[in-house]
Amino acid sequence: MNKFGFQISRPRSINMDLSDDGRREQLLEEVPSYRLCIGCGGCTATCSAGQFTNFNIRRSHTALACNQTEGLAAQLDSCMLCGKCMLVCPRGVNLRGLIIRMRQMLGRV
Amino acid sequence: MNKIAIIGAGPAGIEAAATLAAQQIEVDLYEQGERPLCNIRDKAFLFPNFAEAREVADRLTAKLDNPRIHLHANSDVDHLTESGDGRWIVNGETYDRVLITTGYRTFDAHRKEELGYGIYRGVHTSLEMEQMLREGKIVNANGDVPQRIAFLQCVGSRDEKTGNLYCSKLCCVTAVKQAIEVRKLIPDAEIFIFYMDLRMWGQHYEELYRQAQQEYGIRFVRGRISEAGGTYDGRVQIKSEDTLMGLPLKITTDLLVLMVGMEPSEGTRKLAEQCRICGDYGFAASADPHLDDNRTTHRGLYVAGACKRPMTLTDAVNDGRSAAVCLMGE
Lengths: 109, 330
Description:
Order of helices and strands of chain A: HHHHHHH
Strand content of chain A: under 5%
Number of strands of chain A: 0
Structural class of chain B: alpha/beta
Number of domains of chain B: 2
Oligomer: heterodimer
Largest sheet of chain B: 5 strands, parallel
Number of domains of chain A: 1
CATH class of the largest domain in chain B: Alpha Beta
Distance between the termini of chain A: 43 Å
Number of strands of chain B: 20
Strand content of chain B: 25-35%
Radius of gyration of chain A: 16 Å
Largest interface: A-B, 21 and 23 residues
Order of helices and strands of chain B: EHEHEEHEEEEEEEHEHEHEEEEEEHEH
Helix content of chain B: 25-40%
CATH architecture of the largest domain in chain B: 3-Layer(bba) Sandwich
Number of helices of chain B: 8
CATH topology of the largest domain in chain B: FAD/NAD(P)-binding domain
Distance between the termini of chain B: 11 Å
Largest sheet of chain A: none
């Protein structure tokens, strides 16, 4: 029993040793263009949902890749699958496919 | 004596001609325009040391002042074909050796319609900005001094949508250079550079970037601009993401400057195709990118400068000289 009024803090850092690589690999296999992302943020810039909700398309797939999935499923719900992100992506990433697969992985579909 | 033609009086072509002439070799130098070095004369100052572009161009042009160099201005080379006996025919004239130095053109910003070039008056290309800098006067769509200016990198470079997957390599440092020049002309303006990666690969480039932050207060935003729209008062509203914050961003500026990339010039495309030395994206290809970068797969045909890939002035001059040495040895 802790009687000292403090406890061990939960680390906030991304722990690459513990992150489950399985999902990232699976996503790469199913949406191969995912590996081309350079994180420019063009998709987020143009995203209508991202203007009004905490959904950030670039951040969401970056988060999944390093297993930071807390709250992610709910954020993905904001996506309307309009595909504007795909029109601006300079690397031709299949972002809509990515969202759909991520939703499935996180049990939203 | 071998008869030699050089096509294109840019930095590479001039330096090659001067190198050959210094060895008592006669050269025919074809230039499509009225004057040589139009791409250098377009500029105000050159990175990274702010040398006056016209002064540098004058010094380079002075090298043409040699009786062995025969400059044919206003001479577009329409046809470059093999004669059959290992020689080359340039506009009907037969040569033993031909050096192609037909250079580059800038990306046509109209093709990125979402960035509003040609639609909104506040959107300019880096070339137009260079012209304003040359005149020493920067104005917005209403003719006033702009208080906020944004530069966008990678327009027509590193972009699958335009088919140009390559990096144009010079735009990063050019934007930093132009931003500093703008700061000198408008001390109280807010200046932003939107970038995906800043590639400060050359000597003194990184220092220039540092100076831009430290002395000139240029603000760098890591994000690509996805679209630009006009406002009722002639300004430009930009959408991007501040990727370091992880939030979408919008900003209204007086000017948006699109850093247009380098593409092969029409001449480069045409001649590369005619001579069957097409490289990637319509650039001309050398025989070997490591050890034989001036010869081509055809005997007697050589390439130098930005007709091969995006290249700085320094690199083009050096490449022209290297081609001349290569040509002399054969």
